[in-house]
């Protein structure tokens, strides 16, 4: 089979998958396949670069106008995209999730996004996200709860093996939500965070681990109270 024939077969398979899941016409599906393939190829979101990566006989200027019209006029429901991505994941009963946030500035505007990703082969694949408005800094507990509740509504808590996050993602209500929904979590603590150890009183988090050599793990076997949990 020639290289061109292999490409066409690959695109046809991808178009068939998207066509079954997305309630849009075939021409739009074909365009999205070309767009995704170009993103992977040129590794850029610049419209002109993307237009150059399209595998079709159309003039560069025509591809550029199609890209501009697509992003100006067309929108897809984010939950629909999440369902599609979830179906493309390797079949498992439960997945490890990550909770993370990215924040940068575009001119005077803050771009602040909170997202849930699925852990796959050492990477986090973004699945659901929410814009936190024109603010900088951490998400609040209700924003985290709302995003994870969206995941649960779409896929069920039974599909979560565990959720992991950095030390930004602490808080009494947030942890209570995880515990009530029986979601295992692994979240970093600040070393100076106060913990209540029954029989020992209040200690700082590092006290439990200060005697450990580097790159070793320790499971504290007793009850620890953190943020009233």
In short, what is this structure?
Helices cover about 40% and strands about 20% of the residues. By secondary structure, the protein is of the alpha/beta class.
Model description:
The chain is of the alpha/beta class and 229 residues long. The chain contains 7 helices and 7 strands; from the N terminus they run αααααβββαβαβββ. The chain has helices at residues 3-21, 26-42, 47-52, 60-73, 78-88, 141-155, 172-180, and strands spanning 95-106, 109-120, 123-131, 160-165, 185-187, 194-197, 201-204. The strands form 2 sheets. It has a 5-stranded mixed beta sheet with strand order 3-2-1-4-5. A two-stranded antiparallel ribbon has the order 6-7. The protein starts with a helix and ends in a 25-residue tail after the last strand. The model has no long low-confidence stretch (mean pLDDT 89).
Secondary-structure element series? HHHHHEEEHEHEEE
In this structure, how is the largest beta sheet organized? Answer: 5 strands, mixed
Spatial order of strands in the largest sheet:
3-2-1-4-5
In which range does the helix fraction lie? 25-40%
What's the helix count? 7
The overall pLDDT, averaged over residues, is 89
| CATH 4th-level superfamily of the largest domain | Ribonuclease H-like superfamily/Ribonuclease H
In total, how many domains does the architecture comprise? 3
CATH class of the largest domain: Alpha Beta
Poorly predicted segments? none
Oligomeric state of shown chains: single chain
Class computed from helices, strands and strand pairing: alpha/beta
Measured by DSSP, the beta-strand proportion falls in 15-25%
State the end-to-end CA separation.
61 Å
Name the overall outline. elongated
Tell how many strands the DSSP assignment holds. 7
As a whole number of angstroms, the C-alpha radius of gyration is: 23 Å
